[in-house]
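lol so apparently i was supposed to do this last week
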Amino acid sequence: MRDFLMRTVFFAAVAAATSCSVPKVQPISRAIIPEPRSIAWSGQEESQLIWQGAWMWSIDELWSIHQSAWDDWLPGDSDDRGLAISVQHAAGYDPEGYSLEVNADGVIIKATTAAGAFHGLTTLRWMLPPDSENFGPWSLPMGSISDSPRFEHRGLLLDCCRHFMEPDYVKRTIDLLALHKMNILHWHLSEDQGWRIEIRAYPELTSTGAWRTEADGSRHGGFYTQEQIKDIVAYAADRHVTIIPEIELPGHSRAAIAAYPWLSCTGDSLEVPHDWGVFKDIYCAGEDSTFRFLEQVLLEVVELFPSEYIHIGGDEAPKVRWESCSKCQRRIQTEGLHDEHELQSWFISKIGAFLAKHDRKLIGWDEILEGGLPEGATVQSWRGMQGGRDAVAMGHNAIMSPTSHCYFDYPVESIDLELVYSFEPEPDGLEGSGRILGGECNMWTERAPQDRVDSKVFPRMVAMSEVLWSSKSQRNWGDFRERMEQHYTRLDAWNVDYGWEAIPVGIACTPSATPGKINVQLAQVIAGIDGEVKWVRHGIEQDAEQILDRPFEQSFELAGEGELTVDLRRNGIAIGQPWRFPLAGHAGVFKPLELGHEWSTNYPGGGQQGLADGRLGSSDFRDGCWQATQGKDMSVSIALDAVQQVDSLSVQFYLYQDAWIFVPDSVCFQWSLDGQNWQGNWVFQTNWRGVEAFESEDTQGVVRLAVPIHERAKFVRFTALNPGPCPDWHDASGLDSWLFLDELVVHSPVQYE
Ligand code: ACM
Ligand code: ZN
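anyway here it is w/ acetamide bound
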């Protein structure tokens, strides 16, 4: 008699003792990620199960195996090819939990749900050696595993708006999520820079809103038809991944407004923007037509996505248009609201009520707390953990994805694998509250088209999968790191184009005995790396490229401004993008320097010598090279070795208004023979274009400013006046802006000698 169903899957396995012609057995793997809740290996190597035959482990085949393993749970449907893997239905397991036992007869996986059985089969796959992606035989360790997740919400946000991702890439991402027992794809489908979901009632959303003209004149865009979406949703469901769609409102809606200008307060015709940031044109909260539009959009969305939750964004919605819109102001009056924050809360509540009518729950970014949290809403906390705490304090649920640990668009210099692994989604005091549903890693794609996304998501998502699945007491960085080493072999087999887990190569710049030069020494921070190192000097006439010989073993001298580019390999495999160090050997480097400001402790940028240390700030303002102040001016003076010809002076600023970083109001380059009598002039921002400024007019990036001098000098000085508080139109209007500066470069003929 059997009170459970059993199904034999695929090739037979035999106990080692019963076979006298067993081929060489590959070593077993205990490198399971995420780490199961409990594992008891029998420790009897000789009684391992030997698995014969070939089992193709392509991702597609794995899923057909998983599928058939579960779908074939039909009464009377077992066969007698010999017991290999049996998947058994049993009551009492966690909704995603399972047990897995390997004994002399084979493998038994038990679960209450299909998802649990699926996770059990995934674990079984991970017990095979990491390089076992093709053919056996393999051995399996005898023992048993009992497992269930710590959090029910284990997600990845994929922004397919800033850059469009092909449907096949989305599917592959779903495969990789499932392999790591992640169960949520938070699919970001509408944004300022692109609307990506076909809405039948509003075809212009995709015919117009899905396409933008880039700064160079090229077109970027794409969208998912409803048929493609149904296919992807079903594909995810087969892998026990739920897709939560995000339709942003009331902000981040410029693409929709480009398609239908009547959605905004002004009704002005606007393009789909190609630059990044927070835009002030948002949906008008005063017009009823806005809500007819949004409800129709959401109606089509809920028909396509069966998820319990729908994400409605709610972040970064400036109120400036609402403040001067008569319709929005009338709405504030008629609804008895106090201000525009309450208008946003009213807006979100109205949408929440519509979703509730369709049996869906609302998730919004933590800004939805402002002006009052809509009933039943779940908060996704991104500006730190406080939003999540506040939501829980009000009796709501929260999902944690703070920028500090979960923003995988940030470079590995600021969020490395170990930092991700240290993430704790349940802050002190909220443990066991049951209100923290889980966490997400957020992959925003302003600076990551599809072909760069792997290198941002991996390997960091592997660490996040363990954070969200395994119990807190199990977490052990050293142990994880060892398992990770084996896991790279799996990532290679799955053709994952992973990036670095930490800064792979270090650099030290020191003074050189040769005037106008710096000494550079590279260091291999991660074992097993090598690669070609190039120095691309931004020349007076043209960029000159030089390949350096044995750069990791010897220090070398560099002169002039340029970029040291390291094409790195790890164990012979090229990884990620080339590593870049913008550098400058110049007449002022490592010379005595005085600062007229105190740097922010968050952005010391190399400290006292940081503005003349040969290291230039890069396109990442968190790279450690930028020195910054908030609400203050900056100035630096340098004493050169001797009176000498100075051709020009240059500095660079960082501009990122979204992060409150502005360029100075005005600057002054000065020079002197004696340090007493100075020459030089103020240059105002409005005049910069005439002096080789604004290499980039993007809202985020490096702004370089150079002035010709052609004078003899022993002292040089640079002053930048803070632009004052963030302007009226800015989200942080009235609060102190930031000034980011790096390196006063003194161009002198000495460096060309
Ligand atoms: C966000 O990163 N604006 C949610
Ligand atoms: Zn309005």
